[in-house]
Design brief:
The protein has 235 residues and is α+β, with helices and mostly antiparallel strands. A hairpin with a 7-residue loop joins strand 1 and strand 2. The protein is flat and about 95 Å long.
């Protein structure tokens, strides 16, 4: 009888030791002994508290960071301007320039010279497209966004020309390999314009006419590297 009592007492102490502290903080699985069946071990899964699983605290924290940056960018320059005004210094609206933002669309970001923007097709002296449909650009394109359908050229010195030249800007990864692969300076990405948002996927496809509309006359010599081979061309 004493042995059974000691066993039960020992099991209770073991349960107390294993389960101690699990109410203070959410932890892993806790091993305990069943009250109804002292010889049967059960596993108690500690569930997370409701306040721990709520996203309200994280949302409020993120909103606080946003409001802090807004207040610093807006009110701090204005207070500096007011302080200069009280000190007798001349003031104007230049304090608005200290705000870390761009007044879009009145102001636009100036892209660097090597920025890869929308494609354009360069022109010959007679206004025809310089592309000879050699298929180098669609072959090297990793996104397979360039479609060219060649046709016979009227120029006796040129075998082919593109009847269809399309680029899907939604698939383009702006790698610039098409520009590097072109042997006759027919395609460039130096327009300084980024792809515009569209409501229809078909509107994101650049056609030959639209790219020729952004093109200029190239002074590259056909069949070889002429002066200013990778320059900006001549208007």
């Amino acid at each position: 009888m004493s042995t059974a009592h000691d066993d039960k007492h020992g099991e209770g102490e073991r349960r107390h030791d294993l389960g101690h502290g699990h109410g203070e903080a959410a932890g892993p699985v806790v091993l305990s002994v069943s009250d109804r069946h002292p010889r049967v071990r059960t596993i108690q899964v500690v569930r997370p508290r409701s306040e721990d699983s709520s996203f309200l605290a994280a949302t409020a924290k993120g909103l606080g960071i946003t409001l802090k940056h807004f207040a610093r960018n807006f009110f701090l320059p204005m207070r500096k301007a007011q302080a200069r005004s009280k000190a007798g210094a001349p003031t104007d609206d230049s304090w608005r320039n200290e705000i870390e933002t761009v007044q879009y669309p009145e102001e636009k970001v100036t892209y660097p010279e090597r920025f890869r923007g929308l494609h354009r097709l360069m022109l010959r002296d007679d206004g025809a497209v310089r592309c000879v449909a050699c298929m180098c650009c669609p072959t090297v394109c990793p996104a397979h966004c360039i479609t060219i359908i060649p046709e016979e050229s009227e120029n006796k010195g040129i075998e082919k020309r593109p009847a269809v030249f399309e680029i899907d800007e939604l698939r383009c990864v702006v790698c610039g390999l098409c520009v590097e692969a072109c042997p006759c300076d027919a395609i460039r990405m130096d327009t300084g314009e980024h792809a515009r948002p569209v409501e229809d996927r078909a509107d994101a496809i650049e056609t030959k006419d639209s790219m020729m509309g952004r093109g200029i006359h190239s002074i590259a010599v056909q069949g070889g590297e002429g002066p200013d081979w990778r320059g900006h061309g001549v208007e």
